[in-house]
Here is the input.
Amino acid sequence: MSTPLQRILVTGGAGFLGSHLCEQLVAQGYDVLCLDNFFTSQKQNITHLLDRPNFQLIRHDVSLPIWMEVDQIYNLACPASPVHYQFNPIKTVKTSVLGAINMCGLAKRTQAKILQASTSEVYGDPQVHPQPENYRGHVNPIGVRACYDEGKRCAETLFFDYHRSNGVNIRVVRIFNTYGPRMHPYDGRVVSNFIIQALKDKDLSIYGDGSQTRSFCYVDDMIDGFVRMMAAPDSFIGPVNLGHPEGEFTMQQLAELVLELTGSKSRITYLPLPDDDPAQRRPDITLARQHLGWEPTVTLHEGLAKTVEYFRSIDLDRFQPPTDHTAHKSSGL
Ligand code: NAD
Ligand code: UDP
Here is the structure.
């Protein structure tokens, strides 16, 4: 007798990471349900999947309950860029918290395995560097980033309580800055901003003096980490850091690399640093190496070159900025 087809729900499936995940799961032959309210994405990301027999799109808001039968859930629905998650901060908390309750409830009823896309932001502005999973973080609970940071922290709490109280089979990954093709061109995050600015010969907008760091991971490596974590033994539920341990760069270095790769004549301008902007961030990935055999393989140079190629190939006029946050004015986009 053949094994029944596994049905997998991907919330936020039309977004940057979600669309790559859906693409991989469809290619592997799973029955994929992509759920999205298109807050920070557009249909373009998944149009190539729409005519596939094992792909289905559901327009729905994850903060509202939904009834369906599934075997696995990847819960990715949430705006990820500071400019968009700060646009409607209360909605951001609802998406994280009510979304986690609705999806864990669905997992409980259907006995599905569920993976939460958590974030390095649970460490806030970290005072331990690099960050291991047992570092409890340094988050300002009343600051402008709190709607996202605390929303994601509460989602982790809910996942672990559904696991302890109801036996839900959970996985939690803490994602560090990830970039690549299908980021929204007006996403507002640093990689897309710098590349679009460079391609349009506009000034690259560094916030602060450019000395703050992030560790950048290419999307293909990240999706591989998600799938490995979902397949991990039930004894390893996380949280586990996924990010590039050697990809730590200052924003000044990133801007210079983007200028080199695009051959742009743009200059660099320095704008005020947003409140609570973390000064440094780099993952300790010892657990991911040990339990998942996972290690990023794509360098920032290689990954940025592919991302530049993608942004050169798309028609920017077909994209609308998801929100009219003022950061779009300061970044010139
Ligand atoms: P994205 O903005 O491209 O994708 C998020 C998707 O979720 C979008 O398609 C958006 O329309 C959808 N969405 C937002 N609110 C929703 C709601 N209420 N109901 C249904 N859909 C909703 O961002 P991304 O980079 O692909 O991020 C995906 C997930 O990974 C997010 O949960 C994010 O917090 C997490 N994450 C990403 C990064 C990164 O560097 N890319 C880092 C840490 C965590
Ligand atoms: N940043 C910048 N210019 C931009 C956008 C962002 O210098 O046009 C900085 C931002 O202040 C932060 C870093 O780049 O220090 C990463 O920002 P992003 O929004 O990509 O992600 P996050 O802060 O959530 O890591």
About this structure: The CA atoms of residues 26 and 184 lie 22 Å apart.
